[in-house]
Amino acid sequence: MGFQPQRDKTVSVAMAVADIADGAMIALGGGLSARLPMAFVRELIRQGKQDLHLVGSAHSIDVDLLVAAGAVRRCEESYVGFEQDLGLAPAYRRAAESGNIEVAESCCVTILAQLRATELGLPFLPVRGVRGSDILRLHPEYAEVTCPFTGEVLVAVPALKPDVALLHAPLGDRYGNLHLEQPYVLDERFASASARVVATVDKLVSTEGVAAAGVTIPAHLVAAVAEVPFGAHPTSCYPDYAYDRQHLSTYVKAAQAGGEDLAGYLKTFVYGVADEIEYRELIGGDRLAELGRWTQSTEDWKGLFR
Known about the structure:
By secondary structure, this protein is α/β, with parallel strands linked by helices. It has one domain: Glutaconate Coenzyme A-transferase, CATH 3.40.1080.10. It contains 14 helices and 13 strands. The strands form three sheets. Strands 1, 2, 4, 6, 10, 11, 12 and 13 form an eight-stranded mixed β-sheet that branches. A three-stranded antiparallel β-sheet has the order 7-9-8, covered by helices on one side. A hairpin with a 6-residue loop joins β8 and β9. α2 packs parallel to α3 and α10 crosses α11.
């Protein structure tokens, strides 16, 4: 954890990503298709970052897109895919099967224990859940320890300290105070355990506004914050907007096809836009507004899934 003194921490997305070195261990906030730091993901690709070591709980298009762009060396996740809705993550699966990336499958509780070890200043913490699984084979850095009180054999997992955590929040202030809606997934732990934390927020508000909503991650943990409306698109940031199933489906089809189809998606939605303003213009204000109306009626909500 790096202490960040109170100051105006507002930056552009490009500036927030610029200092991330090739080979960095990056913790991705959010989970599945909710509150993923997609503005940062697109900018990492635009800036040509390479050999990244991704860490997260369970993720989807953020990991798959980075893998598709050739930015990833190692992936440490419990799951990468689009759940029962759109299925497996095509680019990630191809890269895993071909050996183009190192797959270090883990589980959410194990990663949580590793982050807690860092927060507590401990070299490791013991876990039970991965005993008897092939996860131990994928993680030679794990070790077995014997409890001095019960004699039970446990798995010791080393402290995990990502170089940078990329988070997205619905609200924040210019000092870096962030409000998240539950579930927090691992975002709080990433914020405490990572050497550096940068965040996008859908809306910058006053410190009083964040306090009224509830400060989930305090400013002293956050190094930089960028205001990016719909910064999680095409994933959701509830309650403000639902995930864009149509866009996710478009991506999954392109990723499944690979080749020119996948290159076309990257060219259109990543390389073909200079920044997130152009990205939102490309998606269209009407579509983004539609995603924000999911709470108005059951029909509005159901319509997003047709």
